[in-house]
Amino acid sequence: MLCQECGKRPASLHFTKIVGGEKTEFHICESCAREKGEGIPGTTNGFSIHSLLSGLLDFEPSGGASGAGPGYQAKGQTIRCDNCGLTYAQFSKMGRFGCSKCYSQFGDKLDPILKRVHGNAVHVGKVPKRSGTRIKLKREIESLRRELHERIEREEFENAAQIRDRIRELERSVAEG
Amino acid sequence: MERLTAVPETGRLNAVGKFETIRLSDLSELERRVLVEKHLISPNLANESRGGAVILSDNESVSIMVNEEDHLRIQCLYPGFQISEAWELASRIDDIFEEVADYAFDERRGFLTSCPTNVGTGIRASVMMHLPGLVLTQQINRILSAITQVGLAVRGIYGEGSEALGNLFQISNQITLGQSEGEIIENLHSVAKQIIDHERAARERMVHESRIRLEDRVFRSYGILSHASIMDSKESAQRLSDVRLGIDLGLIQDVTPRMMNELLVLTQPGFLQQNSGEKLSAEQRDIRRAELIRQHLHRKSDHGGV
Ligand SMILES: [Zn+2]
Ligand SMILES: [Zn+2]
């Protein structure tokens, strides 16, 4: 099978892109794959084919004409990760995130991309033990804090004290890991 | 980084095996290349001066890459068809590292990887398959297209720019988000099993329909490998594949499949150069490669006896 990009070399990479539920096959050679992106990291281990992804991500409606899809952003407005400074536009060019915060910073805007790549946008697999518990604890603390605030405003001090103790307890277990 | 590379010293990995931490900056270019050829590190970790390290088990079945594209990449290699076993071990090691490191994990998106193609489970489950039957009977393209239809990706294992040197293919999952690790492995497992069935059928057909041509191919390659003085990497991969097929079909009995696997790795350029302790030109490599293969095959038949 010849590479569908150059038509010269034999295709050695075979994969499918899922675009809006529609599958498209790709058969390309290593050099074209490399040209399309910045090399295929993990080549021999085949871990990642994300150089091919830059094409996939290259669909950001940059305002105006394309209308208000899920990834829509208003003209002149740039979405940027507060933590690492990467803009969404840079992300779609590189196909890589700058830091782990990018995920939450780009938020729902990532849904269409993730659906294109995986056919899905929500994780259903393993939850790490420690961080997983911590996430739950932190969420519980947040909601208790809100409740605490309300109780204090309503001057329900006895309840508030109980909640405050519970928050302290949870914070201790977060700190202990 | 320090916390990750120090994990072996804490003794936490003892239950899994004996480990050593190797900093890539301490290795020569050649040593790094050899690790890549043995599939113990990714070219990405080897090439970039990102201060990476690898935590390697003494039997080299587990390699844990630190500061690859992501901070941590746990790789478990198992012989044969033990995908679940490999995953279970990787998951155990993952738990151990999670005791000391804060993973970037999000309830909705899962494990947050640098590249969106890995997010979620972050798992890449692969099987390496030797498929000469499907290649020789020209069914491979059809099968490859079918594989890509079910969320899996296929690539040739060795060689750059050329198609699957030695008829070796690596099949792995493309999807990491929205499926559990179990589902991903089950999917790969069932597809790989079907491919094995097709490969078997193709081999049977060849034996049935063109036995003499098949034998000729196998023994011709065996003969050439046993006697040639110059052997480039492409030819050697192809001939080794033929001999391996001959072993599987019971045509050749004095060579083990294991030796074929070893030779495949030993005849890679980096390995050849490390063995001879110097940088070799392409021609010197081809001569050295032929010599190495001859030595292996003759040594075997000395006590194997044909
Ligand atoms: Zn090409
Ligand atoms: Zn960021």
From TrEMBL, chain A:
Keywords: Kinase, Transferase
Lineage start: Bacteria, Bacillati, Bacillota, Bacilli, Bacillales
Protein's name in the database: Protein arginine kinase activator
GO molecular function, a single term: cobalt ion binding
Occurrences of domain UVR (ranges): 138-173
One Pfam family matching this protein: UVR
PROSITE patterns the record matches: UVR
Biological processes annotated in GO: stress response to cadmium ion; stress response to copper ion
Signal peptide positions on this chain: none
Coiled coil (residue ranges): none
InterPro entries reported for this sequence: UVR_dom, UVR_dom_sf, YacH
